[in-house]
Amino acid sequence: MKLPFRKELEVIKPYVPGKPIEDVQKEYGLQHVDKLASNENPLNCSPQAIEAVRKEAENLAIYPDGNATELKKAIAEFYGVKTTEVMPTNGSDEMVSLIAETFLNAGDEAIQADITFTSYIIAVNMMGATPVVVPLKDFKLDLDGMANAITEKTKVIWLCNPNNPTGTMFNEQELHDFMKKVPDNIVVVYDEAYNEFVTDPSYPSESYKLYQKYPNMIVMRTFSKIYGLAALRVGYSLAQEEILQEINKIRKAFNVNRLAQVAAIAALKDQAFVKKVYELNKEGKEFFYKAFDEMGVSYVPTEANHIYVDVQRDCNEVFVELQKRGMIIRPINKTFIRITIGTMEQNERVIALLKEVLGK
Question: What is the pLDDT at residue 3?
């Protein structure tokens, strides 16, 4: 078949999502399967968000507000910023694509870590730009290495903090030192999907305001993780009005659906739920640290809702063996897997199954 596929597609590998529970149940004839693969919220979402969706379900025949006016207003009020500095999107993935489409031309360069959120490199390659990949240093983003990689061709830098999948972070001073090295004509995308889980006090405080100090910065956040609205696909970015005006030119109409908008507004109001998820996650990661220490298994201390573990076995082998036992995790790289921090019952179960698979 000689269809005119874009040449950029030749270097792009499709994103492979976490395996659905239903598929694993059918494949192995299992009644019960736990999924700790996609960094989903083990407590679901705020009951207030569910109630908001129920009410709004009466209006499914009506297009959503294409401007997401009330959601913008809610986010702006929550952070004390202008509504013109807020852009809701269909998850952070959409914003990653929009940023690439807005700022990258063929031949441009975009800097990122070698092990980080996979959407960055897909978006860059699709624009015919060149990903400049900087290896992690001690499982953390090497900010010095990224600064040294800047050239006249650099147009975008992707920073994931805390990083997915390693769960590591860089602190406030490290971020400011880095930003001082970045020319103001380069866009720095600061992706904070997991910021609400951070326990380290040196994490950049009031990081949502960074774009006010550094006008070339875009701060990305999401309702998918601690708010538990992954199914509805709603993220948002904070940036200078001038930047968002340009990005808005190519944003698809009605990109954030009606149910997502009302659920996000309700979720934002329920900070008691957010605190509950935070405390569960904190308890869970401490449980994993202790369990892995006792097992003699290496792991990377995390500031997110997932933990990066070196099982010293082919990660895909461990992935399959755990699936057979009704547990879905995420194989990442060589001998490393990523486990989402779940309920304590789920955490205990995955440790028990890992001991069985690893012979521990």
Answer: 86
